[in-house]
Amino acid sequence: MDMTPGKVHTIDFESETLGETYEIQYYLPKNFSDLYKHHVVLTFDSQDFFKFGQIERQYEKLWEAGEVERAIIVGVPYPSVEWRNDYFSPNGEHHEAFVSFVSRELIHWVDNTFPTLKVGTSRLLMGESLAGSFAFSVAVTYPATFSQAVAFSPFVDDDFIQKFKDQMMLMHLDLYHTIGLEEDDFKTISGNQADFLTPNRRLNEYLEGEPLEYEYHELDGGHIWKVWKPELDTILKHYLG
Fold it and tell me: Which PANTHER family does this chain map to (predicted)?
């Protein structure tokens, strides 16, 4: 396994529980050393976080400035739009099974492979759009294992909000949630017209009254990386500072 720091690596991960092979990406920072324990940033739609968000460059810049602690970035890319709907969407056929895979198999592999801090408060889940819903889904299902999550413009419906209402342990969570003001009427990657703004406001309304750490922002702009990317600086400082 390639442990070269400062590069994004890709491996095929065989899941014993699901009997399938998934692509996993990982980035070890330039300062990587086995002598130190690291936070884990787990991104979904990881190829987009690297390509459009340039998350590893943002991390390195903040490390140089002494604003963040040591962290590795691990991610799950999506092989196709269909796969994304099936696995990351809260209503996807394999969604629940994949939430279990992340919380049982994937994080154990990460903790056994890299020197990590191994606690919920040192793990950060991140995603945008359907992958943002997935990040929140994992956190709300396993709040003690993953207590920090970020969702940019997640897909939200009543069933998704119900997941939060059903979780008695929300006080473990520290969430960061954004939605674009232009997302009341836009075209999704699947080509459908959608309103994400209204249901995201409903989720915000519910979470505002609950006993968790929660930050919510309505951003100028739409459902695109140009809107999400500038948030990464604040987020990495907030969770890794």
Answer: ENTEROCHELIN ESTERASE-RELATED, IRON(III) ENTEROBACTIN ESTERASE
User: How many of the other CB atoms lie within 10 Å of CB of 2?
Assistant: 9
For 32-67, what is each residue's pLDDT tens digit? 999 999 999 999 999 999 999 999 999 999 999 999
Q: Cα(127)–Cα(105) distance, rounded to whole angstroms?
A: 19
Beta-strand relationship, 21-27 and 8-14: antiparallel
Angle formed at CA 30 by CA 58 and CA 237, multiple of 5 degrees? 35
Could you tell me how far CA 39 lies from the centroid of its own chain?
14
Q: How confident is the model at residue 189 (pLDDT cuts 50, 70, 90)?
A: confident
Give me the architecture of the 8-240 domain, per CATH: 3-Layer(aba) Sandwich (3.40)
